Structure formats: structure tokens, C-alpha cells
Amino acid sequence: MQNSRRDVVVVGGGIVGFSIAYRLANEGVTVTVIERDSVGNNASGYALGLLNPTNETGVTEGLNHHSFKMYKELLEVVQEESGVDVQILKLPHIELALEQSEVIKLKSEVSRINEFDEFNANWLETEEVLRLEPRVSSDIFGGTLVEHVIMVDSYNLTLATAQAAEHRGVEVVLGEVKGINYHKGNAVGVTLKDEEIACDSVVLALGPWSVAASSWIDINIPIVPQKGEIVRVEGLEPQLNLHLHGNAFGSSCSVVQKKDNAIWLAATVEDGTGFDVNPSIEAMEVLSRRGVRMIPALESHQMVLHTACMRPVSSDGEPILGKVPGKDRVFLATGTGGKGVLMGPVIGKAISDLVIQGQTDLPISNLGLERFGRSIS
Ligand SMILES: Cc1cc2nc3c(=O)[nH]c(=O)nc-3n(C[C@H](O)[C@H](O)[C@H](O)COP(=O)(O)OP(=O)(O)OC[C@H]3O[C@@H](n4cnc5c(N)ncnc54)[C@H](O)[C@@H]3O)c2cc1C
Predict the structure, then answer these.
(1) Where do the CATH 3.50.50.60 domains begin and end in the chain?
(2) Peptide bond into 238 cis (omega under 30)
(3) For domain 93-148+228-314, which architecture applies?
(4) In whole angstroms, what is the distance from residue 30 CA to residue 148 CA?
């Protein structure tokens, strides 16, 4: 390991950490990313990989759209710089009405989504959905077609971002950070098991493990892991050329045939299971039922892979982005829940702006850690 002082140490090598490192390196900043596991071995590597800012209208809606626009250029750039194929799929996306009661809400989404230049939405009656894809269940009530949504392989994207960052001089160190070193209140480095790495700024991007950094900054970081499982089953022949999404049996589910040729059934949402990432039989059963509800032919398809990982979820459900209050040169980026892959580029830019200029034009001022109060629990 090299021991020369770095401008910035990023703790955590998921999509969030590497998006920040990549952006900083583009601005000429020297960066070390410290990852204790391997690149993309957690949620960033096992996510569905859907880049769809149209499905949310919350406080990060503007950031999500901004990030999507950034990806339209960035995906090609990181592929070229890394040589890693991120497996871009541009499929029509249909929000299916599986119950009559969903029709009014889904129809009303059409005009909202059409306000965004990058997307095009239309209401489809059941016959129109079946004309596009006859294997969809006929027991539906139409659906909202959204064009120009993007799907990637999230592992390949994390790897590509990491390798593109390395191309730009980012150093990746395998190790576990145990704390931040301060001098007169300024962060001056991080401590690993057997050594210290000196730096001028520290960015914390520990994903679901963020709470462990609370004692490093003397403020509670209210993040918990939320388990999510995905089942992949044998692909359809001919290929399914739509991404279907619907609310089946009490929860939402995606059905999509990705470039690995498998049909991905995604995903469960389970709170209160701690750091358990063992795939469960219950999740397999519920995801299979949801998939078959949308495409009955999947009934006979064998499972090829079943994965589980954890979303980092804050106590108010929104990301935590910004400078750590009361600590100089320490920044936090976590709590991205189910949209951290989508948000990578915009978080990269926002945190890089803060590190380099002390401010950003991006609307993150309401997403700081200070909104939760300052106590350590
Ligand atoms: C089933 C599922 C499906 C999803 N689908 C999508 C999707 O389609 N689209 C989308 O946008 N988002 C999706 N998400 C959400 C997305 O995966 C996450 O929001 C995102 O990956 C979080 O990235 P991260 O870098 O913060 O965390 P992680 O990927 O968890 O990375 C954090 C890293 O920090 C490391 N670390 C922790 N502590 C230390 C330490 N002390 N020292 C060194 N390293 C440390 C960990 O080893 C880990 O690798 C999905 C999530 C799940 C669970």
C-alpha cells in the first residue's frame, strides 16, 4: 500500500463510493477508496439495475432525473474507459394494472411522466399490452407504457465505475476502516487495522453499515439495512422484450429478461432482519408467484440464481448527503434505499462539489445529517 498523503479517502467501495471517487478524480483530486470486502459485492453488485426516475415523486425527484440525464452520457464513458460492458438494455417499461382499482392512478401518471423530455408515456388497454407481448397474463386492466427507461447490470456498472476511477488515478485499498483521525477538529486521515492513511478529507459511503461510523463523527447516523432478494429464472424463448412492473400479492415486482438471458423477478423488501443476507425460501416463493401472476408461462421455469443483499435506509427514508455537522472535512453519502444505483452520478457530483468548493448547486441542502438532530445513541 502506498502511504503518501491523499486529498480524499472514500470509505466504502459500492456504487456511491466509486461514483464520488470517479468524479473527484475527474476534477484532479487524488483519491483512495477503502473497501473491506470486494468491489460490488454488496447491494451495488446485486441490485436489479433499473435506472428509472419516473417512478418516484418524493424529495429526491429532481436529483433522480438529474442523475438519469448524467448517466445517458456517463454509461458510454465508463464503459469505454474501463472496457467493462455494463449491459445496457433500453426496453419499453410497463406499469401493469393488476387490479381494476389501480387504473385511475396509473392513467394519471401518463401526463406527469410526459412532462419530462427524456420519457414518453402512454396508456395501453389490455389488448394493446397483449399485442405487444402475448405472454403477459390476460387477467390485467391495461398498463402505463414508459419509453426510454434504462436497465444495466449493477455489478458491471460498479466495476466499470471503479475501473474508470482507477484509470484516472484512484487508488483502491482492501481493508476495513476503524476510525477517522483528527487534528484540531480537522480530519487528517483514517485508521485501518494495522495502519493509517493520511488525507485532507474523508467521505463516508458505507451503505447499510453507515451506523458503524457514528462513533467516528460523534453523531448518530440513522441507517438500517433493509433486506432485498431477487430470483432469476430461465429466460423466455423468444426473448421478453419488455420490462413489466406491477403490484402483485401486496408488493411491487419487476419481471425482466436481462442480458444474462435470465428472467429477473425483483425484489422483496424486508425490514428488521439485521445484516442477514441468506436467501430465503419464502422470498423465492413470493417472487415466483408475483412473476407467474404477470407471465403465467414462468410457472414451469427453473430458478437459476437467488440473491439477497441490503439497501441502506435512513429513518425518514431519504438519502443522507452532505458535510458532517461539527466536523471539518468529513462528508457523508448514504441512505439511498432502493435507488442508489440510479443516484450514483448525482451524488458523485454533489459530494465532489462540496469537497472541492464547499458548496453545490444541486438541491441537497435538506438532505444533511443535521435534520436528525445531533445526539449519539
Ligand atoms: C434487491 C435490491 C434491488 C435494488 N435495485 C435497484 C435498482 O434497480 N436501481 C437502483 O437505483 N437501486 C437499486 N437498489 C438499491 C441500491 O442497490 C443501493 O441503494 C446501492 O447499491 C447502495 O450503494 P452503497 O455504495 O451506498 O452501498 P453498498 O453497495 O452496500 O456499498 C457499501 C460498501 O461499504 C463497505 N464498507 C462498509 N463498512 C466499511 C468499513 N468500515 N471499511 C471499508 N469498507 C466498508 C462495504 O463492504 C460495502 O461494499 C437495490 C437494492 C436491493 C437490495
Answers:
(1) 6-83+154-222+315-372
(2) yes
(3) 2-Layer Sandwich (3.30)
(4) 36
| 110 contacts 123 by C-beta, under 8 angstroms | yes
CB 133 within 8 A of CB 123: no
pLDDT of the residue at 287: 97
Answer yes or no: is the C-beta of 339 below 6 A from any ligand 1 atom.
yes
Helix, strand, coil shares of the chain, percent, nearest 5, are: 35, 30, 35
The CATH label, of 3.10.20.30, 3.40.50.720, 3.40.220.10, 3.50.50.60, for the domain at 6-83+154-222+315-372 is 3.50.50.60
Q: With a 6 A CB cut-off, is 8 part of the ligand 1 pocket?
A: no
Cα–Cα distance, 373 to 351 (Å, whole number): 21
Give the residue from 337, 333, 252 showing the smallest Cα distance to 58.
337
Q: How far is the CA of 150 from the centre of ligand 1 (A)?
A: 19
CB distance 143 to ligand 1 below 6 Å? no
Backbone torsions φ then ψ of 324, nearest 5 degrees: -75, 125
Ligand 1 pocket, residue 319 CB under 6 Å:
no
- Cα(156) to ligand 1 centroid in Å equals 14
14 CA to centre of ligand 1 in angstroms: 5
**345 close to 65: Cβ distance less than 8 angstroms:** no
299: CA distance to ligand 1 center in Å? 31
**Residue matched to cell numbers 406491477:** 246
Asked whether the bond before 333 is cis by omega within 30 degrees of 0, the reply is no
Beta-carbon count within 10 A of 221 CB: 26
Per-block mean pLDDT, blocks of 10 residues, the chain (377 long): 81 98 98 96 97 93 98 97 97 97 97 96 98 98 97 98 98 98 95 96 98 97 98 98 94 96 98 96 97 98 98 98 96 98 98 98 98 71
Q: Which residue has the cell 458503524?
A: 212
